[in-house]
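FAQ

Q: What does a record look like?
A: Structure on top, sequence underneath. For example:
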């Protein structure tokens, strides 16, 4: 059985969304971030960084959301969710994965760190202007790349689409402005039934775990 460790709307959401798209059985282990469960011995044994998400499958343990998603798509995707290696589509896909993680996500995580994740004495209000500027710059670049319709690599959704759409949702949660094509793309992706299923399942399983 696959077990996903995390909180409902953290980076774990991108993994739970893909699990639902793949239609495979999985269970959710809700981590009580507010009370420091991610710093407890049991979780640190899975991921010494204390960061979420973590996926286990039997004795196999994997962290880092993009790596988890690639593993799941390769093993369970039946030829979907990742472009064929060596194609131009694969290059474009990997550009999106790298850009989302290194450029779009990082200013958002800096906002999160200075709002709630860092110790209070290390939070700096002046950081918000800096990271907003960084996010706006990255969003402007993504706006030039995103297609008017469909997905990042054509007519079928890929791992990068879930990474991008979840990150854009995170941006909206932090009250960041999205350019028009990115906003329309996010609106298209958020209608996918697997996203609603992942959110509902993680709520239900988190409630059971309490």
């Amino acid at each position: 059985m696959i077990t996903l460790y995390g909180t409902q709307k953290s980076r774990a959401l991108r993994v739970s969304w893909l699990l639902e798209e793949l239609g495979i059985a999985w269970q959710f282990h809700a981590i009580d971030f507010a009370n420091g469960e991610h710093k407890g011995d049991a979780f640190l044994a899975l991921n010494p960084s204390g960061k979420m998400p973590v996926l286990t499958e039997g004795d196999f343990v994997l962290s880092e959301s993009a790596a988890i998603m690639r593993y799941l798509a390769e093993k369970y995707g039946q030829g979907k969710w990742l472009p064929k290696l060596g194609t131009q589509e694969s290059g474009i896909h990997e550009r999106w994965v790298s850009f989302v993680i290194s450029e779009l996500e990082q200013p958002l995580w800096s906002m999160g760190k200075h709002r709630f994740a860092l110790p209070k004495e290390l939070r700096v209000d002046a950081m918000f202007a800096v990271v907003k500027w960084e996010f706006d710059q990255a969003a402007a670049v993504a706006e030039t790349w995103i297609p008017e319709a469909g997905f990042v690599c054509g007519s079928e959704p890929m791992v990068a689409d879930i990474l991008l759409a979840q990150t854009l949702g995170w941006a909206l949660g932090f009250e960041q402005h999205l350019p028009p094509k990115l906003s329309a793309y996010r609106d298209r992706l958020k209608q996918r039934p697997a996203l609603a299923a992942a959110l509902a399942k993680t709520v239900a399983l988190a409630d059971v775990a309490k």
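Q: Is there anything notable about this one?
A: The longest strand covers residues 2-6.
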